[in-house]
Amino acid sequence: MPDSKRGFVPTDEKEFNQENQIRLRKAQQDIIYLLNQGYPIKGASTYVGNHFMLSERQRLAIVRATAQKVILEIRRKKLLTQDRIGKKVAIDGLNIIITLEVALSKSTLIRCMDGTIRDLAGLRGTYRIIDKTEEAIRLLGDKLEELKIEEAVIYLDAPVSNTGRLKQKLLTLLTNYPYQTTVELVNNPDSILEKLDNVITGDAIILNKCKSWINLAADIIEEKLLDLECINLKG
What we know:
This protein has helices at residues 12-15, 18-36, 41-51, 56-65, 69-78, 93-104, 133-146, 163-174, 189-193, 204-209, 216-224; strands spanning 88-92, 109-111, 117-119, 151-157, 180-186, 199-200, 213-214, 231-232. It is an alpha/beta fold. The strands form two sheets. It has a five-stranded parallel β-sheet. A three-stranded mixed β-sheet has the order 3-2-8, sandwiched between helices. Strand 6, helix 10 (204-209) and strand 7 form a beta-alpha-beta unit. Helix 6 (93-104) packs parallel to helix 11.
């Protein structure tokens, strides 16, 4: 399989260089102020993004990283430390696998205000297995074993291309771990995950609605990929 870089965009090197990161953080502070005054994120990011002349990708980075104070507090209260994680976890499969693939590709990742690490790779209904996929699955599998869980249920988006192939790869590579693994292909994983606890995801909408969550992608990246530099938009 040829070497692939998930989420790589050549212009990122310039758009997220040190000088532009300073500019992004200044823009983010203005957006945070507007959010905490009740302005919607879309309008606030458009207004501030135009003022700072930000590119679409720079605006996306800020939007993914930023949330108002009350939302951050909700997410913080539901975040589980490793000693509080239950025996059964529910995993937003594409969310964590793609983030880990982006990390292994050394493409752009964002440290966000809620403590997550998010990528800028858009799915747009398509997914393909790359040379980083198996290592991403092994990183996930090792971390779940470390947490001493007993069951992992991984939800994948059935309408997205190649998720059937990803399901088989997950089942094959996770079969020898000391916990039960189930992979479900469903039309809308978000609608299931937002009702559960012990949810592994970085998806902002799910984090706002689920009962509790585990910041697993960030934990894996910070523990296993120490040389990786993330864009700091922690606020």
